[in-house]
TrEMBL record:
Compositionally biased spans, kind Basic residues: 124-134
Domain of life: Eukaryota
Residue intervals of the Gryzun putative trafficking through Golgi domain: 518-784
Composition bias type Basic and acidic residues, residue spans: 19-36
Domain Trafficking protein particle complex subunit, first and last residues per copy: 209-481
Protein name: Trafficking protein particle complex subunit 11
Disordered: annotated span: 1-37, 124-149
Amino acid sequence: MRLYEYPPHTPRSPLDAPDPDREREREQEERRRDTELSAEIAHRKKSTNERGIKLTVVLMASRKVLDDPSLDTRLTYIRRQSGLDSRAALFVLSPVSQSELGDFVQSLQQALYEPALEYYTSHSKRVRRKRNRHASQQVPAYPNPLSPLGNTARPLRPEGWTVRYEYKMACFAEFRGEDEVALKHYQDAYETLVIMFGSPVILPPRTKRWAEAKVLADCINVKITKLYLYNNEHALALSHHITHMRKFGDFSRGWGIGEDTFEYWSSMARQHRILAELLEQGTRSTLVIPVHVPVVTSSALANASEKGISLAARGALPGLELDAMRSLGINPSQALQHPGYYYYMAARCTEVRRARFLATLEIEESQGVGSTSPGFANEKKVEHLVIILELYTKAYELFKKYAATSSQDQSLGRLPLWIAYRIAQTYYESGKFNMAVRFFERIAKTYRREQWGSMLKPLLTTWYACAQQLGDMELSVKLLIERLGYDEGIEDADLEGLQDDLLAIFKYRPSSPDEVLVIDHSESQPIFDTSVVFWSPEVKINEPAAFQLTLTAPSNTKIDSLPFKSLEIQFSEGVEPITFTHVNDDSATKLSVRRIDLGDVATREQRTVEANLRWSEGSSVVFTGMISSSIPRTMIITQLRFLMVDGAWKIEIPLDPCRTRSALPPPARWLAAAEPPRFIPVKREEFSSVRVLYPPHSTVISLSHQSPAYLNEEYPITVEITNSDAKELDITMDVLLQPTEIDYAVNTITLDNEQSSAMIKGVVVGRLAPGASVVKTLYLLNTGAIGDRMIDISVQSRSTASASQSENDDDTVSSPGVLDVTDVLRTVSIPTVDPFNFKTNVVYRRPLRQQPGLGDLRTFDKEYWDDADGGEAFISSVFKCEGPWNVKIESFILRKMDHEGAKLLESSIAEGTADDVVSSEYLPGDEFADVCRVSIASGGNRDAGSLPIPGPGEYLITWRRILPDEKHGSTSTSVFPLPSLHPPVDDLVAILDVAPRAKLHQPIPLTLSIRNRHPSRSANVFVQLETDPADAFVVAGLRTGRVPVLLPGGEEKLAWNLIPVECGYVKVPRIRVTNRRSSGNAGGTDAGIDNEGVPVKIVDTRIEQRPGVPITSVQDEDVESENAQPIEESRIASILVLP
């Protein structure tokens, strides 16, 4: 309502005083208008109070009135006069924006929430008391006749009152926002209603109360479904709705309203439509339709179950476990779909409803007696087709909407087409043929493109019926000819009438007699099965290529009377088409397979041939011929054009030369004999075309080389190319070095200053006149490892005449497959061997010089070389010529590569100089050797598993291969590194040094050096010289004694003089060295051994030969190394005493 506002008054001058008469008049007018407003409010309040509704008044006023100081007085007067409550009963609102108006409405709702809550709560209590009072009463003992007594309505039973009160309490709870309470009351009311419907005594069918109860049951079902959807319980909502439909469907059968009645299907359609509208309204707000797609695939779940992974372990993501369980299976009665699905179901039910109604109407008309049923009379007034169109249209729009958002299901994109087809069918049944044709045109495009023949056949039938009703002759001809291609799955009666219908249309005059009607079958199925087969996939220039074109008529459709006047066969560019004109030949029409020979097809002349262009059911016509070309190209049959002429009708039907009506094309066949028909299968993929190529050039390629190749050698391969053709050729060459599976192999090819490790492409050899030859030398360098190398040599020859012609002739096809180019491929395998077999033998010796002590300042020098633990290594290297060819060694040197672990002391060959003995020619099997001495530094080599020490040098051998003609090949260099070193280490050792020869009665010195090389343990050493009267020496020196305690790294020397008294090989006196502390510290030996001590090994420097520590983690793969046989170090060699 609007609060009255007195019209504004503009004074003549700002200095004018207020007019008291006008002010008095304004107050009187405002009081009169306020009294009228109060009376209207009081009248409305009286009517609302009678219905138990509380009235709230909102007055609209301008901002000027809001600023008037008399506003409060006026509002108080209006509230008192109208009898409004002082609390939340009167509001004043000025004209505001839309956002401010929303805020006001929200504030108004908040202000009225508590009074409304109290209102509905009090009503619920009152209704609950009534329900309890009726529930406590006993069933009245009045008769319950099956039919009402006159017009007097029977009183409600307690069950009816229970339904009434439960429904009221559910409504009040819903108004209060208590959805769970409302749901419980609705469910109780629904269950009571079901009990009442189940008993004809309580609720007799076909009565007014029975009809009202049915409507009430449907309303309660909607309420329950809506409340389930409020809580996003989609499965429960759909399940309850389906249960309601199934339950009342069972009731309907008992009431005589089964599936054969239109009332049943009317009820089903109404239920589906109610659910669809409910879902559609919900999706406009916050309802989200679930998408029923599995989160995890079945294969992923199977793999997880095979690995023993539990569902809880797989559910790492939130909700994954529950989704995985749901994806194992979905109950259709609980899978809620989008509203379009239920609109579609409502439309289908309405179609059945219409069919049942028409059947009942037909029975009524046939019997001539009208039905007195009010339901049947009302059904006659229903526009069934209008309802069906409305429902299908809504379903179509919603299916398109959800198909666009649900791209994961490809089938959803085709469902709108099916619904559109049902819309078109409905338009056809309702007589709106133009609308039906528009839908058929759009749907047929997709069905043709996706080859849905089973869907397209009934569509074409109905489309043709629409064209007949519209009188569109051209469209009827197009549809009939298209239907001739779909001869499978259609009744014979329909197929026999297609040709007759087409001939009947030809009797009428077309709308444009001067124009040719072109019927395009590019996407639909053709009338004929067509197939083109060329006998050879390739032919040379001017060589004829045989081909066969087969046209097979449909086996279930008659086309023998169709007026085909001509058939034009079009070839690829450069070949003129052939035209066949029809001539009658009844004998030829009866043959199942006919053969028409075309002979040689000329490329520059258009031919016309006469032939019988009539086909019986399932018969075939095979057109055979020969075609040739003077230029390289790919030749095909591009198109077939039938011309059908009858009266004023001229119809052109273009066909694809390779097209079948079946889903799987039949295998290609070549007709070998016509009577009886005998075919030869053609087993190749590209059988519908032939390539015309240049003849191959005559070139001779010869390869010469002296295998095997040596490693590190530039191996020459001579390639000789001879032009044996009659024309000049332009030659290019490609060389491909195939990858090898040999480890550490690095290969390189070189040709004409171009080098590559993989491929050299496009090497220009030059032009060769007929009979001329050219020689190219290809060099192959192999390094790393021996083995076979594979080389592909490709020689391309191109005629110089064709090259210049292709540059000047624009019509010549220049694709790589039809150029005058011949490619000749040669593959050569080059075995590669090592020119020298390199073997080494390494022995280790301890240093003889006295080692400095721990406190020696020389050990702190940066240049000091400490070899106390490493000692020396003697490396013997043997080189053997392994290859089958003689080699000339030009130089053999050992290059020093000293490092912090080892250094080269001396060698039998000098670095950087060539040895005259080594530098010479060597035959296969010849050997040469070198011995070098290496000093090894002390380091972390005490551990047997430590890394080996790299060799401090490498051998460089410069050599040449000696060819069979006594010429020398190119200079090559082979590198052989010294083997890695891993010397053994000592703990406590005694080194014996004595001369190997002596003279009788002349003293010789004998020195015994005791070294403690243990890093942390001292030694308590005792020495004892045991003499025997049978000894050949007189000894002067210590017999038994104790050496001072040897600290780690310490060394002590003991000396004796030996005077030989016998000649010959005599033994040195026996010396025993023991350590009396080592066993106790070592742990694990008996106490008795501690008293005697542990023997210390004595090493004779004259025969010392120690092997290296075995290496397991790192091996020298390039060097074949042999360790020296170990010699028992405790053995002392004899001395040769000469007279």
